User: What shape does this take?
Amino acid sequence: MSLLRLAIQKSERLTDSSLALISECGIELEQAGAKLRAPAFKLPLEVLFLRDDDAPGYCADGVVDAAIVGKNARQERGSDATVIRELGFGRCRLSSAVPKSLSYSSVGSLNALNIATSYPRVLADCLERRCVRASIHEISGLVEVAPSLGLGEAFCDLVRSGGTLLGNGPVEVETVMQSQAALTCNQALCKESRAIREGFVSRIDAVLRAGKTKYITLNAPNESIPEVVRLLPGLKSPSARPLATSGWSSLHTVVGEDDFWGLIERLGAAVGKGIRVLPIEKVIQ
Ligand code: PRT
Ligand code: ZN
Assistant: This one.
């Protein structure tokens, strides 16, 4: 029987969010995290717990069929695995940074510098595109303190909040790539495994859509309904149900999260208080 083998990161930064997504997809794993592999209950899917550095290559080579990995790791490994969905967690950027003492005006200031990084391939591609000739020194850890250890005059590493950089003194100067976790897949799947993958991707889509939408209910006097309807860009028009109090209705709709707070403020101005916002678990389309 066909089985979809999905790699996720073993007990590191992306692990909890990957397991949460799998669970929100309604997939229950046997002994999640306890072993190297965990089969799913009632679904032909098996999760393998791997290092983020290894998963992109294993996915490209077909050792696993799919993997949840940082796009940065996939790009650095030069993996042929296709990005099927960006998953919205593990967001970070790969940036170059220089010591405060170095006078920096533009990317050209990196010319002839020795740059320490764990992402030599991605950095080299970026510098080449921007016609910068620097020498790249590959190191595997302590990247942000590399210049102070004499391991380079500048460095290039992942940045999330920027707190690590602030703590060590260097200044972030160029974004090399934006990254986040992605579902990547091997393209050479048999028909059955592809069908399992498509089912899994539909579940992920339902979860991702739900994450971007909220359910809103509010009570409004009937005369203000046209104005509320004008303000609410729902999936369809909001539904209105009469309240026990005559002349009033309860309105229900689904809204996207873009400009969510702006919308709530405009609604508040139109109908006053009593707007209720509820999370949506899944949106199936
Ligand atoms: O054992 P394994 O090899 O699997 O794990 P790892 O230690 O190599 O990877 P891990 O868990 O650190 O990162 C896994 C993935 O998380 C990365 O490939 C990115 O896609 C993503 N990610 C998101 C990050 C960060 N944010 C992040 N901030 N990876 C690393 N960092 C580090 C960064 O290297 C730097 O040291 O956090 C520090 C900077 O963080 P801020 O918030 O201070 O800017
Ligand atoms: Zn790693």
Notes: Residues 51-53 surround zinc ion (ligand 2) (CB under 6 Å). The mean pLDDT is 91.
